[in-house]
Amino acid sequence: MDQERKAAVPPSSARATAGADGAAPPRAGQPAPPGRAKKRGKGWLRLAARVLGLCVLLCALALAGALAALRSEAVQAWLVDKINAVMQAAPGAGASPQGIQARITHLSGPLPFGFALGVELYDAQGLWLRLPACSAHWDWQALPSTLRLSFVRIDNAQLLRLPLLPDAPPPEAAPPLTEASLRAQLGAALRGLASLPDWLPQLRLEEFALTNAQLPQALLGQKNQPDQPEHPEQQDQTRADGDAAGQSKKAEPAVDVVLSPAVARLDAGLKAAAGTAGAEADLNIALKGTDTTPLLLAGQANSAVEASVRVSAVPSRQGGELALDMAAELACELRTAPSAPAPDGSEAAAALPAGDSKTVEAPLLATLLGQGAQAEIRLTARVTAPPAKGQALSARAAVESISLQAGLLRLAGHAGWAGGAADSWFAGPLDVDILASLGQGAADHSAAAPEGSAAPAGAGRMPEDVQLPAKAQLRVTLKGPLQAPDEQISFDCPAWSVGGHSLADASLRLQSAPFNWRQVLFGGAAQPLQSLNTPAELAVSVQAVATVDKFSQSLGATLFARQVQDNGSSAVQAGLRDLQCAVLGIAAGGQLTATLPLPLALTATPRVDGKVDVHVADWKALAAMLPGARLDGDAALSLELRSQPAQQGPAPQTASSPSSPPAYTQHAALRWRIPRMLYREDGSPAVEIRGLEGEAVLTDVFGAGGLAGRLDIAGLRSGDKKLGAKVRAQGSIWGPLEANFETSGFAAARCTVRWQPGTLELRRLELDLPAQKLGLRAATAATVRYGAGELGLSGLDVVVKPSGRLRAQAVITPGQAGRASCAGATFARAVAGAGSRTASWRGGGLGNGLRAVPPSPRATCGSRCATWPCRAQPSNP
Q1: What distance lies between CA 429 and its chain's CA centroid?
Q2: How far apart are CA 625 and CA 635, in angstroms?
Q3: CA nearest 488: which of 537, 432, 533, 427?
Q4: Which has the closest alpha carbon to 241: 103, 65, 382?
Q5: Cα–Cα dist 37/41, whole Å
Q6: Are strands 278-289 and 295-297 parallel, antiparallel or unpaired?
Q7: Residue 265 pLDDT exceeds 80
């Protein structure tokens, strides 16, 4: 029994070794049953699920805590301080601010899905832009297909002035833009758009609103009004904001910035969307005056300017080509303010020009805008490119419609160009037809105005010296390939009154067929320097006719330009030929040609050849420009310009003067001849000139600048006085230059002066009036010195006839006291007449009698007289 009891297995041991299903445990060396392994895997999964759920719960709790913390006032205030500290901790902290710096004034809202904040922008002079209320919200529920901004709003923004920006480094020189590079860039851009992945989210801005933004009207070209704080708390608030931020950048004295009373209100709205399927945007802008200040544009009081812009771009793939279609529509309207008078003492009256608070004496532009204006324009464009590589294949652009109405002015037309798949887009056709008319449709515009509406302020009013024609028309047409279209410009005006003169049947025609602008400016087969009739050129025919005060006027000429080979290099030769002019009684004819090296530059020096002859053909037509005057005689003038190869000196070029000398020297000669001319004005004696001849010859104008001048007048007679004169000048226009002047007749004078930069010498001065028995003579040479440092007179010693002497000298230095003296002056004069006696006086001297500082509007004058004996008898007046 004991042995059986020992051999029995305890029940607990059997349960421990048995499987969960009551099966016997596997023996050593035998694999476990498959059911037991599955149960163990399910246990691990349950444990992992519990851990993962716990992590998600912790993340959700952390996110909820973060969101709750971000929306608390304490955390948002902490964020404001940290962000401002980061923006202030820039290199050179404590020094004067360079560029633009920002400061957040407050932050609130349901971060991070929405916020409301205030921002202020500063530059080196302080606050220049205040954004007190900015808010935004984005819709996270639209993710991942769309990144959607529900709204972005900016309310009550204040632009105090334009910022002072630091000097930007000069941009790097970019390679010149050519047709090939432009087509390559367009092709790469189209392939870049086509390669965007489809999974990119669409960007949508449902609303951007700028409401009640204020900006000074000085930015619109109006004169600044005296700055007065529109809000009394602005100065204190500006200083308080600077102190609260602890801005070390305000080490300089603070500048009080206040709004000018003449402000404008700006409202704007924008909706936009962009994605792989295309992009579109819709912008609306309204610019208005405030309740107390009208909106001034071109001196005209207006109610509002409203504009809308709608743009779209749609990429597509058609067959084996990529395409991008673009369109834009622009509409703008200007509404004028009512003509009600502004209240006395109001800011609106102060904003208008002085002396008129109701209407404005408008210039030309203000008169056109006086009745309001409307403009509409539609633009389209299309570009295609291969999908693999290469340049853009084709392109076209068009202004499908233009419509402009501004008072009496109407503008309409279209313009289009298409570049085919040829080697050059410049061969594509161009079609432009634009018509501008003045005076037509004005009655219709007035009739369309609502009944009872007042006429706009200043509508139709013009200054006395500027008047619009009753009717005029300007038309511009261009047809043909872009590189050489047929161009025609015409202007017609049946009647126009300008400055008291009547202009009738005016007509102007400019025509060129073809207009070879590309060949002349950018290449083409250059022609050798030949006659002016070279066919490969740009030539514009000009024809104008009109009648001015019943006198016929005409002008005809040909403007031309072509590319030539000049001295072994390419150059542009341009000018006018076949000049036939009869304007205001003056007839002119001739031709002029200017040659400029390529590439064209503003600093390039042209060389000019040609001759123009001018003479008076109709003295009555010329006298019509001078009311009350009568002219008669004969007068002619001639201008001749000539260039010739420069004579190269034997001295070679050195490293200190690497620039090559000019290949040509320029010469000019102006000659005039007036055998006789008579000028008579009502109520005045006639003035007659005889034998007036002269010339001025310049040699090497851009080099040595030699000048030789001559002027002779055989006789100048007015009443009983007659005068003859001779003038000679010789020297250089750069100095020195010497001139002699002599007269004969009722006044005999001789004068010699010599000028060079900084000095003018009076070497000889004599004047004799025999009839009056008076005269003067310079005993010594006088010198006048001038320049940036000072202005001085020295050596003036004049002997006066019949008796007297005058000596003077002076020195004036900027920023210092000036000194002048006039010493040793003694005069005596005999007074002739019935019952008169002799009187004489003598001044003992005036020394250091004038002292003044030029920049200051102060002066003191004193005199000192040693002796002054005077004997006189009463005489007749």
Answers
A1: 33
A2: 17
A3: 432
A4: 103
A5: 6
A6: unpaired
A7: yes
pLDDT at residue 63, as a whole number: 72
Q: What's the whole-number mean pLDDT along residues 35-54?
A: 71
Token pair for residue 542? 């000009």
SS3 (DSSP) at 798:
strand
Helix (DSSP H) and strand (DSSP E) numbers for the chain: 11, 40
- Where on the phi/psi map is residue 348: left (φ > 0), alpha (ψ -120 to 50), or beta? alpha
The token pair that represents 567 in the structure block = 């001295």
Residue 326 C-alpha from the chain's centroid: 29
pLDDT tens digits, residue range 327-373? 999 999 988 766 534 333 333 333 434 333 333 344 566 667 767 88
Which has more confidence, 610 or 76? 610
Contact call for residues 366 and 295 (beta carbons, < 8 A)? no
> What sign for the dihedral angle of Cα 200, 201, 202, 208?
negative
CA 294/CA 704 separation, integer angstroms: 59
Cα angle 326, 331, 336 (rounded to 5 degrees) comes to: 165
Least Cα distance to 469 among 501, 490, 494, 435 occurs for 494
Which residue reads 């010329």 in tokens?
622
Q: What is the 3-state secondary structure (H, E, C) of 722-786?
A: EEEEEEEEEEECCCCEEEEEEEEECCEEEEEEEEECCEEEEEEEEEEECCCCEEEEECCCEEEEE
Phi/psi at 408 (nearest 5 deg)? -85, -5
- pLDDT tens for each residue of 183-241: 999 999 999 999 999 889 999 999 999 999 998 877 765 554 444 344 434 444 444 44
- Distance in Å from the first CA to the final CA of the chain: 182
**Residue whose structure tokens are 């000596």:** 807
